[in-house]
From TrEMBL:
Protein name: Transglutaminase-like putative cysteine protease
Keywords per UniProt: Hydrolase, Protease
GO biological process, one term: proteolysis
Pfam families noted in UniProt: DUF4129 (PF13559), TgpA_N (PF11992), Transglut_core (PF01841)
A Gene Ontology molecular function term of the record: peptidase activity
Keyword Protease: yes
Length: 728
């Protein structure tokens, strides 16, 4: 009994550390990729190792894992009965087989990607189990994990400080533990394991404490990251711009959940526009401020409209003065979404297209009749260019729409009080909403705020993005300015939202893409990516404002002249090229900025934490009961399995399974004990001669290559008798 407890404790330690090592690969995914619901995959990995720990049969273990996968996929994607989900999953697998063989990766749906990811984790868990208990080696996988974390920490937004510390402390202990186990199996050492464990823990702890608290000098060598990043840049670019050797090039990006950090803009041309007016090119809006960045509301309402027909979307009240304009867009860097000006009316293109507008973010997509996203190369638009009357803006009454106010005045409770106090101080004495908005817009231009792209802070875990910019750094780019203005307005109860897209770009002198009179040609690059603010006024609608230092609002206000300018901005993550279902493209775009709490919301809608805790507790209790009573039921499971087993090697497998049952029963075979000696020990314990007979027959099969088909009936009876004795 004591040995069984020791073995259980040892296996629990090894499996727990191996499970943690694999989970370290999953934790960065939400930061560096568009992967959602990482907790679901973490639970799956935990279940895999729990099943290995309890030594559940392969067929039962596979059934439990498949059941978990089906339940998870249904909760996250299908939302149907569990009988229907199996049919959907099988159909999806069949449909995706030709896609996999033709390597059209962009056409894979999110549900099928998740299914493949589950299979990958299943395989990795098995490999770790094999390396741990067969090879007793894990150094290669440990090195891969350390390399993976350090590369992500160096080249992405993921901060791996905690992961690296865990890898050093627990990883070294796991490697040392496996090494001592190999020595024990070879009889190189005997006893002293407890002393070794204490010594190992003390040594690792001492090394960690010395490394953590000792003074650290700054590096004395050049930063190698800059060299790696700049190596792929064209030589001409390196000669013209030495900064490329220091900072990566970035443009428009999808993930805004964690803003901040330096960049240098990318001159890659995104599109060329023939247009009658300068204005901003919109891509999407976001409405949830998290304290670290922006996310979008969960509700998805899609409005569809045909090409060359009015989109039927109201941008402003009828009282706003508007001019009808036309423009042509020629895409150079393909992407799924549509760029368009505020006031869009129609879109025309030669292809047979259906356009879809996500009303929550106002992001538009071009699709075919089967709802598959299409990357357009060129399209023509008609839009209304507004002129806002300052008198009407000043006369606008307070917003009464409670639903709109609740959504667009949202702020997390973590926003510091001094941010709210600053907003009240800025608008002190201002009577109308327009005066208050203009006061906050102008505040950034007159109080020492600097446009900066290189020396830009990244908020820490306890820092608020806006608070850090307003009171500590006072330097940043458009994300800092626009987000700060939205937060200041919302703290006053004024509905405002964050908008991202592109500026009007650079005018190309003498360019003639088209022959239409009265149109200019503008070249828009990644460096023209930009974010700004839109504020809602009752009786008027959404009105754009520009708080960023060095930029001017391109829209016309009565008695106000403004000239648009351009500047570089945020992070770039290009969408994969291909033809994919529009529901998957929209889901990826909307989910890329989701935090851990938000991405897991759909799962928690069905499974609250209380319910999850109860279910997990019940499962653990059942698993513990099964483990404690395994000697009563496990032998009969083995008898059932071998009842239908066929083949010449049936006896050898049965004999080896008998050895495992005897070992679990408590009849341990010593290292220097032969099979015959061990058989005599077993027979003496049970007062039989059955084990000796089976052992002699087993030695004949192994050493003399004899078959046992003729004697199987007798062998089976002897074997079954001993198996049943282990259940007593």
């Amino acid at each position: 009994m004591v040995n069984a407890i020791k073995n259980l404790g040892k296996n629990l330690l090894i499996y727990g550390l191996a499970c943690w090592l694999l989970i370290e690969w999953l934790l960065p995914l939400e930061t560096v990729s568009d992967t959602r619901n990482v907790q679901v995959f973490i639970w799956f990995v935990s279940v895999c190792f729990l099943l290995y720990l309890l030594r559940i049969p392969v067929w039962l273990s596979a059934f439990i894992k498949i059941a978990y996968m089906v339940c998870a996929l249904n909760t996250l994607f299908y939302h149907v009965s569990y009988l229907q989900v199996l049919k959907l999953l099988v159909r999806e697998i069949v449909d995706h087989v030709p896609i996999l063989f033709s390597m059209r990766w962009a056409e894979l749906t999110n549900s099928f990607r998740s299914f493949l990811f589950f299979l990958l984790l299943w395989m990795m868990a098995y490999l770790l189990h094999y390396w741990l208990f067969t090879q007793k080696r894990l150094f290669f996988f440990y090195v891969l994990t350390v390399t993976y974390i350090t590369v992500l920490d160096t080249f992405t937004m993921f901060r791996g400080n905690g992961a690296i510390i865990r890898l050093v402390v627990f990883g070294f202990f796991l490697l040392s533990f496996l090494h001592i186990e190999r020595l024990r199996e070879k009889a190189s050492i005997a006893g002293g394991i407890r002393k070794w464990t204490v010594f190992c823990l003390c040594l690792i702890g001492l090394a960690f404490i010395c490394g953590y608290f000792s003074p650290k000098l700054p590096p004395k060598w050049p930063d190698p990251v800059a060299f790696v990043r700049s190596y792929a840049a064209p030589q001409e670019e390196k000669r013209n711009d030495p900064a490329l050797a220091k900072v990566k090039k970035i443009g428009y990006g999808q993930n805004d959940s964690r803003l901040g950090g330096p960049f240098i803009a990318d001159d890659t041309v995104v599109f060329i526009a023939e247009d009658q007016k300068r204005h901003y090119w919109r891509v999407e809006t976001k409405d949830i401020y998290t304290g670290k960045g922006w996310e979008s509301s969960d509700s998805v309402q899609v409005k569809t409209f045909e090409k060359n027909t009015d989109i039927g979307y109201s941008w402003w009240n009828l009282s706003v003065k508007k001019q009808t304009m036309t423009a042509s867009i020629h895409i150079k860097e393909p992407y799924f979404h549509i760029v368009y000006p505020l006031g869009l009316k129609t879109i025309d293109t030669p292809e047979d297209i259906v356009f879809r507008l996500d009303t929550a973010t106002e992001k538009m997509y071009a699709t075919d009749r089967s709802a598959y996203a299409i990357m357009l190369r060129t399209y023509n638009i008609t839009y209304e260019y507004p002129t806002f009357s300052i008198d009407k803006l000043n006369a606008a009454p307070p917003v009464q729409d409670e639903g709109l106010k609740k959504r667009y005045t949202q702020l997390p409770e973590s926003v510091p009080k001094r941010v709210r106090d600053l907003a009240k101080q800025i608008v002190k004495g201002k009577q109308t909403q327009y005066e208050q908005v203009k006061a906050i817009e102008q505040y950034f231009h007159m109080n020492g705020y600097v446009y900066e792209t290189s020396d830009v802070a990244i908020p820490g875990e306890k820092d608020d993005y806006v608070d850090q910019f307003l009171f500590e750094t006072k330097k940043g780019y458009c994300d800092n300015f626009s987000t700060s203005m939205v937060v200041l307005l919302r703290s006053l109860g004024i509905p405002a939202r964050w908008v991202k897209g592109y500026t009007s770009g650079q005018l190309i002198e003498g360019a003639t893409l088209g022959e239409e009179e009265g149109k200019n040609v503008y070249q828009v690059t990644n460096k023209d990516a930009h974010s700004w603010v839109e504020v809602y006024f009752s009786g008027i609608g959404w009105v754009p404002f520009e708080p960023t230092q060095g930029f001017a609002n391109p829209y016309e206000f009565t008695d106000l002249q403004s000239t648009p300018e351009t500047a570089p901005v945020p992070r770039q993550r290009r969408l994969e090229q291909g033809r994919v279902p529009i529901k998957d493209v929209m889901e990826q775009d909307r989910s890329s900025s989701s935090s851990v709490k938000e991405t897991f919301a759909s799962f928690l809608d069905i499974w609250s934490w209380k319910r999850i805790t109860i279910v997990v507790s019940i499962l653990l209790a059942c698993a513990l009961v099964l483990y404690k009573t395994r000697r009563k039921w496990w032998p009969y499971v083995t008898l059932f399995l071998f009842k239908y087993k066929r083949g010449n090697d049936r006896f050898t497998k049965a004999y080896l399974s008998l050895l495992r049952h005897l070992d679990d029963y408590g009849l341990k075979r010593k290292q220097d004990q032969t099979l015959r000696q061990y058989a005599a020990y077993v027979d003496d314990w049970f007062q039989t001669k059955e084990m000796t007979k089976l052992t002699l027959l087993y030695e004949k099969v192994i050493y003399q290559q004899e078959t046992v088909r003729v004697e199987w009936a007798e062998v089976k009876e002897l074997w079954e008798n001993l198996i049943k004795k282990t259940a007593s």
